[in-house]
Amino acid sequence: MSSAFLKNETADAPVVIPARAPLPPGTPNYVTPRGLTLLRTELDDLETQRAHLQGTQADDENERSRQLALLNGNIANLNERISSAKVVDTHEQDHVRFGATVDLSIRGGKLDGTKRQFTIVGVDEANATKGLIAFTAPLARALQGKQIGDALEWPTPGGKQVMEIIQISYD
């Protein structure tokens, strides 16, 4: 018989709490004001889920206990991240710093003329598919301190790519 039809006997298995996005040792937990708001909203959501779960009876008490342990672990990790957060003032500057939205133009090669936009954010806010890159990412570090008109060579599988900064803005 397929194990898909058997009850999963994992009541004694340890609850694994997923780690948050890592920060290199000794690196401050910089966040944008938006990033701190997102962390607090996430915490509120988890606490609401926990309160709901605590207030209900479950058919499977072991599963309820596991879910509570997972929520408690995630809440503890999030509280730690929020308490270590250092909000960075993202006021307008003429060079790339934390919180900057940087527009790049790719020069040469197959992607000549292609535009890319990245915003440098905290590790918890990072989402590469949305153009949000962590300040610890190699590209973010390479952009730090650059100004409009500066170019940098960036290695890609197809060879080095030249990217020119065409705009810098801050929210």
List keywords for this structure.
5-stranded mixed sheet; alpha/beta; 171 residues; Chitinase A, domain 3; single chain; elongation factor; two-stranded parallel sheet; protein biosynthesis; elongated
Q: How would you classify the helix and strand content by structural class?
A: alpha/beta
Count structural domains.
2
Provide the CATH superfamily of the largest domain: Transcription elongation factor, GreA/GreB, C-terminal domain
CATH-derived topology of the largest domain: Chitinase A, domain 3
The count of DSSP E runs of length 2 or more, i.e. the number of strands, is 7
Which percent range fits the helix content?
A: 25-40%
Low-confidence segments, ≥5 residues, pLDDT <50?
1-7
* Biggest sheet details: 5 strands, mixed
Q: Number of helical segments?
A: 3
Radius of gyration equals: 22 Å
Spatial ordering of strands, largest sheet = 5-4-3-7-6
Name of the top-level CATH class of the largest domain? Alpha Beta
CATH architect. name of the largest domain: Roll
Question: Could you tell me the mean pLDDT?
Answer: 89
Order of helices and strands: EHHEEEEHEE
For the record, give the distance between the C-alpha atoms at the N and C termini, rounded to a whole number.
Answer: 58 Å
Shape: elongated
How much strand content do the residues show? 15-25%
